[in-house]
Amino acid sequence: MRSDERKRRILARARADGRVDVVEMAAELEVAPETVRRDLRLLDEHGLVRRTHGGAIPVESAGFETGLKFRSASHVPEKRRIAKAAADRIDDAETVFVDEGFTPQLVAEALPLTRPLTVITASLPTAAALSEHPACTVLLLGGRVRGRTLATVDHWAISMLGEMVIDLAYVGANGISREFGLTTPDPAVGAVKAKAVEVSRRRIFVGVHTKFGVHSFNRFAKIGDLEAIVTDTNLSASEAHRYSLLGPKVIRT
């Protein structure tokens, strides 16, 4: 099997399963594990995968993005801890933007709803999850619904956000890096996120450690725009410190 065909199959497996295991892939391709490791190093250098112990995970890009089904099944305990820690930072905010995605949805479900709160979101699942709480007013942004994430985009959503001044925004991203900031593969999604960041007085990023050091196609915010970054303890303390030097408080939970 030619090297380029082998790498295509490895990348396809990573994207289909959410990860690739060196030993399993070597057996499937009938090559030595070191051959797979070499291919993964090359794929990592091209920004298509991110190597992990014993394998690799796919990196989201303009040509590949995971959906809610995958996101809601990966790193769930870490995401729940992140959501709780992020929700605890609401302070006196009365209007809150909750981004699309599974981790922001968990933040919404962890918000203290013992007092009146207005939640603005582009996410249909988040709107549905909060709609039955009597103390919560839910404003669902209009627009085209993306089937992959069940969230609204395009000028309707951006126009609605443009008329608001929001106390606090909980934002997610497909990638976050010190060099490129917060990124996402789809410019339509990025435009909604950028507008939410612009009209919010406070911004908190929520995301698991696999998001860090990764960049995608469309940048919508800088690290310095954030009040806080909430992630899990698999992000090293030294790397968290490097992000904190750019402005935000970094919370590892």
List keywords for this structure.
single chain, 253 residues, alpha/beta, seven-stranded parallel sheet, three-stranded antiparallel sheet, 10 helices, 15 strands, 25% strand, elongated
Question: In words, what does this structure look like?
Answer:
- With 253 residues, this protein is of the alpha/beta class.
- The chain is built from ten helices and 15 strands.
- A hairpin with a 2-residue loop joins strand 2 and strand 3.
- 42% of the residues are buried.
Provide a short characterization of the protein structure:
The protein is of the alpha/beta class and 253 residues long. It is built from 10 helices and 15 strands.
Write the topology of this structure.
Layout: H1 3-17, E1 20-21, H2 22-29, H3 33-45, E2 49-52, E3 55-58, H4 68-71, H5 76-87, E4 95-98, H6 102-110, E5 117-121, H7 124-130, E6 136-140, E7 144-146, E8 151-153, H8 155-162, E9 166-171, E10 175-177, E11 181-184, H9 187-199, E12 200-206, E13 218-221, E14 228-231, H10 237-244, E15 249-252
Parallel strand pairs: 4-5, 4-9, 5-6, 9-12, 12-14, 14-15
Antiparallel strand pairs: 1-3, 2-3, 7-8, 10-11, 11-13
Helix pairs in contact: 1-3, 2-3, 5-6, 6-7, 8-9
How many DSSP-defined strands?
Answer: 15
Unreliable stretches covering 5 or more consecutive residues: none
Order of helices and strands: HEHHEEHHEHEHEEEHEEEHEEEHE
N-end to C-end Cα span: 44 Å
Main β sheet profile: 7 strands, parallel
Question: What strand line-up does the widest sheet have?
Answer: 6-5-4-9-12-14-15
- The dominant shape is elongated
**How many distinct helices?**
10
Arithmetic mean of pLDDT: 93
Beta-strand fraction estimate? 15-25%
Helix content estimate: 25-40%
Task: Compute the CA-based radius of gyration.
Answer: 19 Å
Overall SS class: alpha/beta
